[in-house]
UniProtKB/TrEMBL annotation:
InterPro entries in the cross-refs: Glyco_trans_9 (IPR002201), LPS_LOS_Heptosyltrfase (IPR051199)
One Pfam family in the UniProt entry: Glyco_transf_9
Name of this chain's protein: Lipopolysaccharide heptosyltransferase family protein
Cellular-component GO terms for this entry: cytosol
Organism of this sequence: Thermodesulfobacterium geofontis
A GO MF label: ADP-heptose-lipopolysaccharide heptosyltransferase activity
Amino acid sequence: MKKVLFYRKGAFGDTLLTFPIFEVLKRKDYYIVAIGNTDYLKIAKELNWIDEIYSDFYKEILKKNYELKIIFSKTEGFDPFPSERIWIVDYYFNLLKLEKNFSLVLPIKDSIESPFKNKVVLHPGSGSFKKIPDFSLFEKIEKFFRSKGLEVIYFVGEADSWIKNFTQNFWECFDPLILAKVLKKAKLFIGVDSGVSHLASYLGIKSFIFYGPTDTLLWKPIGKNYKIISLNLKCSPCFPKVCEERPCLDSSLLFDKFLKAFNDL
């Protein structure tokens, strides 16, 4: 069997956006050895899209023979980021000359015992506080859904302990694979530009995702049932050089845009 070595370090959302590469290469009967964040990569391993996962370039990995090496790094191989404004997935596929034929819904089995079953899941968190609007935005959204008789619950992940200062109505989990299996049962998802939002969209959940300083084209999620909510200011995108005022994350304006997007369903 042909072997490929794949390397791309990154956060949760970055890693999920590489999954279509694994799916397409696996369809070509490659044996895939992937290096990155193993907590995230084990979702792809669960789907049998990759065969071995490692957190770094260990000697025993490098000793093996590979028909193909795909390295995304600032120091060798391909640049992890495109030089033009293009969706990162398109960048990968153009670079590797792969056919863009991949799943828009992650075919993972759900969990019957899900704390999110038929609930609206709110996730105000992100790995960077520069992307996070004032919590009042999510309080308004929670109130809106409760007024419609829907059950609402917050998700708290590894970088989200601060959310517990605002609500006791949450479910906490630090395992991405478990999260994927339980999140699939959610009725709706509302979040910011984060790995969890990328996961929700990829799972096929109807998702509303707030983008402020980050690029809505470069970092849009995989999926066919999501809506990006952005104020589309002239100064955006600006991440990571984000101004202190962050007008792109104005809670009142974002809430109005959310209501319009929801009512247009």
